[in-house]
Amino acid sequence: MKEKNTKKLSHGRPSHVNPSPRKPNVVFLIADDHRGEAIGAFGNETVQTPVLDSLAASGTSCRNTHIFGGLSGAVCAPSRACVHTGIPIFRATIGKDMMNREHSSVIHPDVRVMPQTMQSAGYLTHAIGKWHNDKASFARSFEGGDKLAFRGMSEHTKVPVHDYDVTGAYPKEQEYVEHTFSTELFTDAAVNFIEDYEGDRPFFLYVAYTAPHDPRTAPEPYASMYDKSGIPLPPNFVREHPFDTGDMTVRDEKLAGWPRDEDEIRGHIADYYAMISHMDAQIGRVIEALKAKGIYDDTLIVYTADHGLAVGQHGLMGKQNLYEHSVRIPLIFRGPGVPEGKQELALASNIDIFPTVAGLCGVDLPEETEGISLCPIFAGEVGSVRGIVGSVYRDVQRMVTDGRWKLIRYYRSPETNTGTERIQLFDLLSDPWETQDLSAELANAGVIERLASELASWMQASGDILQEKPVIPAAPLA
């Protein structure tokens, strides 16, 4: 393996664009597996996230942002494709069928992605950390980079990375292993970039962490920060999920024993929070570097994640489901043009992130972008930009919510012979933890019919290849 690279990072190939000094710099931070509620400022009284709390206090948090979903168990790759493109997964990526793993990771070559668009608008684009989509889309997006991880996951102290490759090839033989803890490794590279920044063009710095994804092995003192005996179990903890969701034995679900043990789940939550708190502190280093450079107030900071995670909720461990813990993500904007101290509850999708970044930076969107900018909400012009949001998982689950009512439709997969033909209905206003399925109550028949129609329309508009199937059974199943 190649030895650790300690040289100063290179900006790579030159870009023949005009500088745009009036545009804000952008630091785009994306975590792996950080669910939307696991931030202190959002009401979680156990996890410690002072840096993210500060960003939320000085910016705007979009608290009702959902992922579009994905067509494979590795939800992070399709979710990142949606963030990068602002387009539903069915049109953002290539592939032939629902179970084709490639369909969820390889971005269509004709689609212009967020960093590529920012570069065309005069930005210096630089990437650090995990990409997890195809190398061709990466190569056309970034002028430079450091500690680039193209794999889905690894041990946090054995991270396979590449140096920036001006050819865009990134051959296997040029990959080497770094032993600095991943979160610190990527933060070191981000701080180096900020310190070396010369300021002739605004920059778009993409920093993609692999935390808090398992293996959840935070370094000390964070590993000992949370005593599992003091960790409260979530209200929706159950020892076993009541029916087959269609992916009950995927890798993530094997991280804890069946049926779920309360003490074991508390340990998993403690480790999960330790990873988040460590990452929070490292993000603080990025912010301090911006302040030391004198560019903090001229920089738009965006924090989000590729998806959430169950970690014991509903008897599940992973993200291969459409409950709120897995489809709702954190989304914080802080910087020029962003109101301070606001927590917005308007519905949003992760395909809306790219249009919002572009709007805050005064950058024109590609014609093919389908997401909706949240800037009108920030400006107080409208209260919402979406009436509903939906999400998909493989060929076994679909979801739609109007912000209060939420319908999950389950299918039995003809490919894997798994799953259950049924629905669930939740009132998120009175039951945010999704503990009471109301689908069998006759009084809710009208709500189910309305949401079923909304889901069918959303699936058709999104290009969902399950759209020809009936959305719900003839009657709700208990």
UniProtKB/TrEMBL annotation:
The keyword GTP-binding does not apply. Residues 24-363 form the Sulfatase N-terminal domain. Keywords: Calcium, Hydrolase, Metal-binding. SUPFAM superfamilies: Alkaline phosphatase-like (SSF53649). InterPro entries: Alkaline_phosphatase_core_sf (IPR017850), Sulfatase (IPR050738), Sulfatase_CS (IPR024607), Sulfatase_N (IPR000917). Residues 1-24 are annotated as: Disordered. Signal peptide: none annotated. Belongs to the sulfatase family. PANTHER family: ARYLSULFATASE FAMILY MEMBER, ENDO-4-O-SULFATASE. This is Sulfatase-like hydrolase/transferase. It comes from Paenibacillus alba.
